[in-house]
Amino acid sequence: MSPEPIVTDTTGAAGYAVNAQYYDLIFPTAHRDALRSALTALLTDVRRVVEIGSGTGQFTETLLANLPEGGEVYAVEPAAVMRAALTTRLAALDAPPVTVLPEDALRAEVEGTLDAVVLLNVLTHFSPADRRTLWAHWIPRLCPGGLVVVDVPMPRSAVAVPASTIPGRVLGRRRYDTVAGATVDGDGLLWTMTYRVHEGDRLVSEDAVSFPSFVVSEETLNTELLDAGCEPVDGPPAGVLVWRKGEH
């Protein structure tokens, strides 16, 4: 019998206590690599970047790898359990120019202007009202020509997603995967994720969490970002959407 899922709120805080231990193991490799490639293509030589929802730091490392001398990253991660993984990853690097901010994205503060705001796998935590607050908080901090980068939202409307198994990584004798599916929850979705650990043909353990998420279309994001002073960038790298702040 599958475990009864822990139900969290849209911040994901309770759910992270479940999935943090699995996060890097179950993140789809092809999706991760596509996002890393997109960041490299877009942000090479970008000096000052804020990353909203840094999680365990999978993409923070990529941002750091592409910084020019004197550049810096601000990593915003309010979930303590994810921040523990983030700081552990960053501490293994040689004095990286990254400042970890524990505040949530609507309240975190940085000094000076920014060249890019990056949000990967986090936008579904923000309600429409909070997204507008998010843009109002960060886009004024962007320099003219600065970029906003988000991953392509999927799904883009509130439609049920049948449960399917997402293969993960292998560590030693054990293999990890996730069963993920979503039901319609008002204007959004209720996702249920079951994280499973296998050894050979034996199911060793499984943990489950359900969390609500907000859905948003590319068209809605375009409207919101245009209102905030940013124009969509044509032909962005695979896996992301990009906007550029106007020059005035």
Q: What can be said about the biggest beta sheet?
A: 7 strands, mixed
Strand and helix order: EHHHEHEHEEHEEEEEHEE
The chain-level mean pLDDT equals: 94
Can you count the beta strands? Answer: 12
- In which order are the strands of the major sheet placed? 4-3-2-5-6-12-11
Low-pLDDT runs: none
How far from one another are the termini?
59 Å
Shape: globular
Helical percentage:
25-40%
Rg computed from alpha carbons, rounded to a whole number of angstroms: 18 Å
Q: What structural category arises from helix and sheet content?
A: alpha/beta
If helices are DSSP runs of H or I spanning 4 or more residues, what is the number of helices? 7
Strand share of the residues? Answer: 35-45%
How do the helices and strands line up, and which of them pair or pack?
Blueprint: E1 6-7, H1 13-19, H2 23-26, H3 29-43, E2 48-52, H4 60-65, E3 72-76, H5 80-91, E4 98-101, E5 114-119, H6 128-138, E6 142-151, E7 161-171, E8 174-185, E9 188-199, E10 202-213, H7 218-227, E11 230-232, E12 240-245
Parallel strand pairs: 1-10, 2-3, 2-5, 3-4, 5-6
Antiparallel strand pairs: 6-12, 7-8, 8-9, 9-10, 11-12
Describe the structure.
The protein has 248 residues and is an alpha/beta fold. It is built from 7 helices and 12 strands. The strands form 2 sheets. A 7-stranded mixed beta sheet has the order 4-3-2-5-6-12-11, with helices on both faces. A hairpin with a 7-residue loop joins strand 11 (230-232) and strand 12 (240-245). The chain is globular and about 60 Å long.
How do you describe this structure in short?
The protein has about 250 residues and is an alpha/beta fold. The chain is built from seven helices and twelve strands.
